[in-house]
Amino acid sequence: MGRLVLVGCLATALLAAPLAVEGQPVGKVRHIGFLSADAAASSSAAVDALRQGLRAVGYIEGRNLAIAWRFAEGRTDSVATLATELVGLPVDLTVTNSASAAFSLRAANSKIPIVLAGVDLRWLNVGSLARPGGNLTGISSMASELEPKRMELLKEAVRAVSRVVVLRDLTLVAGDSRANAIFRAERWGVTFIAIPVRGPEDFRGAFATAARERADALSVAHFPLFYAQRRQLADLATKGRLAWVAESRQYAEAGSLRSYGADAADLVRRSATYVDRILKGANPGMLPIEQAAKFEFVIDLKTAKALGLAIPQSVLVRADEVIE
User: Fold this and answer.
1) 24 and 75 housed in the same domain
2) pTM score
3) At residue 218, what are phi and psi to the nearest 5 degrees?
4) Based on the domain organization, do 195 and 313 belong to the same domain?
5) Do residues 70 and 34 touch, judged by C-beta distance below 8 A?
6) 192 and 163 in one domain?
7) 308 plus 256 within the same structural domain
8) Each residue's pLDDT tens digit in the chain (324 positions)?
9) How far apart (Å, rounded) are the C-alpha atoms in residues 297 and 142?
10) Separation CA 84–CA 146 (nearest Å)
11) How many domains does the chain have?
């Protein structure tokens, strides 16, 4: 476990901070922590977005700001450990773009403010968006709220879809409630088949079950296990001829049929305004939680071809990006 503690230091070295603006006064150095359940190697966009957002409101890492970076490398069992480590440091607040990390940070400390940089609120039981209370605020990714849109896109791509596999990550502290929510969505006219997994070693068995159940589509929540293994999942889905409309563009880039969700980099960038307000004395519990404002629709034509699906031109022109 000791090696995990060093991940943040390694990530800082690999993702070196930009040079400070010449002539800007140093002032008081503020200390914040950033915790992601994802891998450092796949988090460069989030790291850059946070630095850009902070720079825009006057904070430059290495000059008037110090950031303790921590990445769990897709290992859900290390998130709580890193959260406890992070709140034990002299940090003024913490920032996270992971639901599991937000859950662990709140469990580890009820005083140090937590800024959500695009997190699905289904995990956190936030009572009110207007006044979240406690030590947590920030921006919601609206992942759960966008599920009907993804189902619409799935039905648009495969009109005859009738049986959808839902992978559930049993390693999560609170479980994957997403499946329970969409099980109630009978209006879609499909049957949802929940298949529990605990790690990548369970994937092939899960897809074998999907084949036996005659599934024709896949639904996977954006959790660390699935994000870290998105290429393997996309490959298995394509081989199993399962259409998959995922939550973010990174899945489409890895080979899912389509993706629709909030612009993750934009969410992280916008979270810097919360950091600024809290460092200037605002009570996080009194700052309204904002919702995602910028969304991306991505289509992977290679996967569509492999599945034998023709994407109408009327759909292609709606996409923000088409992967050829």
Assistant:
1) yes
2) 0.84
3) -130, 145
4) yes
5) yes
6) yes
7) yes
8) 444 444 444 444 444 444 334 334 456 999 999 999 988 988 999 999 999 999 999 999 999 999 999 999 988 789 999 999 999 999 999 999 998 899 999 999 999 999 999 998 877 878 789 999 899 999 999 988 898 899 889 988 888 889 999 998 887 644 444 444 444 446 678 888 989 999 999 999 999 999 999 999 998 888 888 888 999 999 999 999 999 999 999 999 999 999 999 999 999 999 999 999 999 999 999 999 999 999 999 999 999 999 999 998 999 999 999 999
9) 15
10) 32
11) 2
For residue 90, the domain's CATH number is 3.40.50.2300
Same domain, 201 and 230: yes
User: Measuring CA to CA, how many Å separate 101 from each of 58, 87, 145, 166, 195?
Assistant: 26, 12, 20, 23, 24
Do 229 and 206 fall within a single domain?
A: yes
Q: Residue 196's domain spans which residues?
A: 147-261+296-323
Phi then psi for 71, rounded to 5 degrees? Answer: -130, 130
Residue holding tokens 């870290």? 228
Give yes or no: residues 240 and 153 share one domain: yes
User: Which amino acid is residue 197, in one-letter code?
Assistant: V
227 and 91 inside one domain:
no
- For residue 15 the two structure tokens come to 């993702």
The neighbour count for residue 102, using CB atoms within 10 Å, is 28
